[in-house]
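Input/output pair, single chain:
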Amino acid sequence: MLGAIVGDIAGSRFERREHKSKDFELFARECSVTDDTVLTLAVGKSLMEWEKGRKETEDSMEIEWTEEDLGKLEELTVYYLKNIGRKYPYCGYGGRFIKWLFSDDSKPYFSFGNGAAMRVSSVAYLAKSVEEVRLLSKAVTGVTHNHKEGLKGAEAVAMAIFLARKGVQKTEIRSTIHNEYYPLDFTIDEIREEYGFDATCQNSVPQSIQCFLEGTSFEDAIRTAVSLGGDSDTIAAIAGSIAEAYYGVPESIRIRALEYLDRHQTEFYREWVTFLSSE
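Output:
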């Protein structure tokens, strides 16, 4: 979760104002939290409350989740996306999402936008297997982004994070993404000059994953993502969420990034950290 937050903040001031270089101040006065952070926190809250509820029931030790279990997670995801999201109406939501957010209608709207992928990182911290990654990712994503490309983009990111958390090396992560999700037959240097703003999963998620794969450290992955241009906060949030699982987040960066969160966002983040430590 923190990696997504760091990437969001670092890339926020460059969205649609491209900076095709890795040389920039990571945190600046112009930086801010955007929808990437808000919705990442909301999905994390949904998963956390869902897991707490399961532990309070007699069947919490079941090996397999039922459709009812996953349905409850979907309901909680809708609730917290709307409950938390509505507190920040001007943080940069896409047009179709903001209509859904402030509507009484909670039906998904067949989106394949990269909002599906930037908010999904917490899935990889609850899932205990590849199959659980797929189930959780679909549950928290399909409430809005139920297009096959939206579902695929979120799952690809969650899978990369899950593999990184398990200590899988980059060569194997690359192979999994390349064979099961997107062809990764390019380098960032090859596409940087011509790459522009594209908020679809299919044209930003593989690029974000490639930024992580080419990064030599957590910070370098963030810098590589920002240097690509385009939807810089979201690309950096996705790359950062995977890089956190692979490298960890340096303490100095963690401290600096959390200064950008308001009181409520900080509370949600701390609650998530406490929850993970008790698992």
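The chain has 15 helices and no strands. The chain has one domain: 2-15+32-53+67-278.
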